[in-house]
């Protein structure tokens, strides 16, 4: 089969690799119907050291089950399924607590002999716990939004949930990338009535308005902070959802959160230090967020997607074939595409 490999910064190739086969009785083989490129794939794409072997890449996909191991129940050949961006048994103590990202028997795609999602097929470990069956066919118009359940939409949802967003909280979302826009959609779904979106790409913030943003602040830094404070009688918002920013984003987050409020950050933050000084302490600010246990949220988020009440798949603004995946990476890296869908 063909799959995507990353050889180094700016060097992504689609090559022949061995067909996946069942190794463990808990495995399944899934033929990929849709996959996509994640903003977090751009970190190795931007900075990885060159290697001679190349590594598999991709962690978001949906597809059709082709074969299951003897210990897999509840799934059979022909089922359309979506995979969360971390695989997990869904039965251990962490999984039962809704933290499948800490599963005692789970792991990441495209590591340690596990396939990546950006290919024609994937061996899925812990298939019964990992895969979620979708009650539609592989020709469904809902596929982009169902694929968003793999990572980007649950990550935005996790940001809103950990921040405590509800009908009584005002919200600032920092970032107009696919995660930020998903956080807007999630905050709206959780009942927030005031959602301020900070972002400077008009086509993206327009989608943010469609997803539920009530205000857009295009300014950044001190000017952006001032604009949010103006919009909130000088107090800031109860919750701030920091979506995959660099250090200035977390600084902005602390500056626009209301006293007693919560800052949540998701999506592989690229800064090691959080500027939580005595001022933050005296203002009683909570910092939360983290990697999203997507598997924990899919069952809850799926019905709204199936019934068309939310369309998180609108974040995909370009579709490529597997052979065009290198173009897809370039388009996301130079920001001419928001999020790229792959149709193998
Ligand atoms: Zn587990």
Q: What would your notes on this structure say?
A:
There is one protein chain. This protein is of the alpha/beta class and 344 residues long. It is built from twelve helices and 18 strands. Helix 8 (221-231) runs parallel beside helix 9 (247-256). The longest helix is centred in the C-terminal third of the chain and has 13 residues, at 294-306. The chain is globular, with a radius of gyration of 20 Å. The structure holds zinc ion (ZN). Residues 88-89, 91-92, 94-95, 103-106 line the site of zinc ion.
Q: Secondary-structure element order, as H and E?
A: EEEHEEEEHEEHEHHEHEHEHEHEHEHEHE
Strand content: 15-25%
Q: What small molecules accompany the polymer chains?
A: zinc ion
Question: Measured on Cα atoms, how large is the radius of gyration?
Answer: 20 Å
> Which parts are unreliable, with pLDDT below 50 for 5 consecutive residues or more?
none
Report the span from N to C terminus.
Answer: 11 Å
How would you summarize the topology of this molecule?
Blueprint (H helix, E strand, L loop, with lengths): L1 E7 L2 E6 L11 E9 L5 H6 L7 E2 L4 E8 L11 E4 L2 E2 L5 H4 L10 E2 L12 E4 L2 H4 L1 E2 L9 H5 L4 H12 L7 E4 L3 H12 L5 E4 L3 H10 L3 E3 L3 H11 L5 E7 L3 H10 E10 L11 H5 L3 E4 L4 H13 L11 E3 L4 H9 L6 E3 L2
Parallel strand pairs: 11-12, 11-14, 12-13, 14-15, 15-16, 17-18
Antiparallel strand pairs: 1-2, 1-4, 3-5, 3-9, 3-18, 5-6, 6-10, 7-8
Helix pairs in contact: 5-6, 5-11, 6-7, 8-9
Bound molecules: zinc ion.
């Amino acid at each position: 089969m063909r799959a995507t490999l990353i050889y180094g910064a700016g060097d992504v190739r689609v090559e022949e690799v061995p067909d996946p086969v069942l190794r463990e009785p808990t495995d399944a083989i899934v033929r990929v119907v849709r996959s996509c490129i994640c903003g977090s794939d751009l970190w190795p794409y931007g900075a990885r050291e060159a290697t001679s072997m190349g590594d598999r890449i991709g962690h978001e996909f949906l597809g059709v089950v082709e074969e299951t191991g003897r210990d897999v129940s509840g799934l059979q050949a022909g089922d359309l399924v979506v995979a969360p961006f971390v695989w997990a048994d869904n039965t251990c103590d962490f999984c039962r607590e809704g933290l499948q990202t800490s599963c005692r028997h789970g792991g990441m795609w495209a590591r340690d002999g596990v396939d990546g999602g950006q290919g024609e097929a994937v061996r899925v470990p812990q298939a019964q716990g990992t895969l979620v069956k979708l009650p539609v066919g592989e020709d469904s118009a809902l596929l982009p939004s169902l694929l968003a359940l793999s990572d980007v939409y649950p990550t935005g949802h996790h940001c809103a949930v950990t921040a405590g967003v509800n009908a009584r909280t005002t919200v600032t979302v920092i970032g107009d990338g696919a995660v930020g826009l998903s956080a807007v959609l999630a905050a709206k779904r959780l009942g927030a009535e005031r959602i301020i979106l900070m972002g400077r790409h008009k086509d993206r913030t327009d989608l943010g308005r469609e997803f539920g943003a009530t205000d857009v602040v295009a300014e950044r830094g001190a000017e952006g902070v001032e604009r949010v404070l103006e919009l909130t009688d000088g107090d800031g918002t109860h919750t701030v959802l920091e979506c995959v920013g660099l250090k200035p984003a977390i600084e902005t987050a602390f500056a626009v959160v209301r006293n007693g409020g919560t800052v949540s950050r998701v999506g592989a933050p690229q800064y090691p230090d959080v500027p939580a000084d005595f001022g933050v302490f005296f203002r009683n600010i909570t910092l939360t967020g983290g990697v999203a246990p997507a598997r924990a949220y899919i069952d809850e988020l799926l019905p709204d997607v199936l019934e068309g009440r939310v369309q998180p798949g609108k974040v995909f603004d370009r579709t490529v074939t597997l052979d065009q995946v290198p173009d897809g990476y370039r388009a996301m890296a130079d920001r001419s595409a928001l999020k790229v869908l792959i149709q193998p």
